[in-house]
């Protein structure tokens, strides 16, 4: 992979637009529509961060993840939101996904791009719970599927070792 594409490159503009549109869908909790923006072979993961000594060579716990999902498991999570068993999201959270520092990289084939971004998620639930923030970096692979970009892989790297959010029922 070479350096990032220029900001005026058509692939960068399309990838950035994809992320902005995705953030809107997640904020509006339009999860069924969001699922349509994912490839059938999506891998959606968030490794567990650990604090290690300088030079240890790793900062995630091998084999451990807050989630490591595919299209089926993501669709089951979305379907659960529509049931009476989704107590983690009843009442629904108020969400705001802030996406910034977007850099796009060309791949060997024209059907894929790698997109790095930073995200800050604001989440508020109910009237008595304190709001929560999650800061993370994301590394995505977008695939051009019939002229439309879709998310093929997302690796989320949170900036904290200990998450201060009540649960991870939301998508980053």
UniProtKB/TrEMBL annotation:
Protein name, as recorded: 3-phenylpropionate dioxygenase
Pfam families (alphabetical): Ring_hydroxyl_B
Keywords tagged on the record: Dioxygenase, Oxidoreductase
An annotated Gene Ontology molecular function: dioxygenase activity
Family: Belongs to the bacterial ring-hydroxylating dioxygenase beta subunit family.
GO annotation (BP), single: 3-phenylpropionate catabolic process
Superkingdom field: Bacteria
Lineage: Bacteria, Bacillati, Actinomycetota, Actinomycetes, Mycobacteriales
SUPFAM superfamilies: NTF2-like
Keyword Oxidoreductase (UniProt): yes
